[in-house]
Write a structure and sequence with these properties.
The chain has four helices and 14 strands. The longest helix is centred in the first third of the chain and has 40 residues. It is elongated, with a radius of gyration of 34 Å. The two termini are 26 Å apart.
């Protein structure tokens, strides 16, 4: 039914031209029906067909049929502007809904996985970091952060050499994207393209979204002012961008980046329930420290309904 109404709302059925178009279509359907009747054997002979068409009792039917055709054509051309206006209004509403600016929802790192304080890293931090794309991160000097270079209370060792840990996010719906304020440490050049870790977003009744943290692609050295052959940049600027640039406690240039994890549109109706991190404990043969990463804040982009 909706498809039929949408069909009638097309401008081609409006005005004088639409009126005559409908007349032509209905007359063609009528003649076509007679032809089908003849071919299928309802009229066995051409003489029968002619007699039926010229029968005195048939003539009034033509007048009635013609009146019905004209009435239908007039009705369609009359209601077409209203149908067209309704279709345009519906389209405008959908367009306006899609233009609503999603809001940012900060997610605090719980004490269960937080193992360091932000004030131990940087000088003169603002209370809020807003990226050039409008992503907001709420931070405080005494905010808990996750530093995989330090001991984390509860971790789950995996067979692939990773250690996994995470927390419950509650049941957050309509998540359009998740943003993580992040960087890495001991990012030596021989670790380039090394999988430092993973971020896993767990949804209700849907498969998890797992994002690998690849050094030099979407994660880089936190203290880019340090000497040495370090990975100081990323290649995937579609998902990773500079969120803050300042200095560490020693006055050396340092950064925090925003890592974006988009959520598939089909999954936005599923609640985000858990957030997990995994750290790769493997080390390069010429290194004893290994690469680690830190999470400073999380912000979720919520799609307004």
């Amino acid at each position: 039914m909706k498809g039929f109404i949408k069909f009638l709302s097309h401008p081609a059925w409006g005005g004088i031209s639409g009126f005559f178009t409908i007349l032509g279509v209905l007359i063609a359907l009528g003649l076509g029906s007679v032809l089908i009747a003849f071919v299928t054997g309802i009229f066995h002979r051409i003489q029968d067909l002619l007699l039926w068409l010229l029968e005195p009792m048939t003539s009034p039917r033509y007048i009635l049929l013609a009146g019905i055709i004209v009435l239908i054509a007039f009705t369609v051309t009359t209601i077409q502007p209203y149908l067209s206006s309704s279709a345009k209004l519906s389209h405008t509403k959908k367009k306006n809904i899609s233009k609503i600016t999603p809001r940012s929802l900060p997610v605090l790192l719980p004490a269960g996985i937080g193992n360091a304080y932000l004030q131990e890293r940087y000088l003169d931090l603002p209370s809020e970091i807003v990226t050039s794309k409008g992503v907001e991160f709420k931070i405080k000097p005494d905010s808990l952060i996750v530093d995989t270079a330090k001991i984390i209370r509860v971790v789950l060792p995996r067979d692939d050499g990773f250690e996994e840990f995470g927390f419950s996010a509650g049941k957050i719906q309509n998540v359009k994207a998740a943003y993580f304020l992040i960087n890495s440490g001991n990012s030596q050049s021989f670790y380039r393209s090394f999988k430092v870790g993973e971020i896993k977003l767990v949804f209700k009744d849907a498969p998890p979204i797992v994002t690998p943290l690849i050094l030099g692609k979407n994660i880089r050295e936190w203290c880019i002012g340090n000497p040495g052959d370090l990975i100081r940049d990323v290649s995937d600027h579609q998902v990773s961008q500079v969120a803050w640039k300042g200095t560490n406690l020693d006055g050396t240039t340092a950064v925090m980046d925003s890592l974006k994890i988009p959520i598939f549109e089909i999954m936005r109706g599923n609640s985000l329930e858990e957030i997990y991190f995994a750290h790769n404990k493997k080390k390069h043969s010429s290194d004893t420290l290994g690469v680690h990463f830190s999470i400073f804040a999380i912000s979720l982009e919520i799609e307004q309904q």
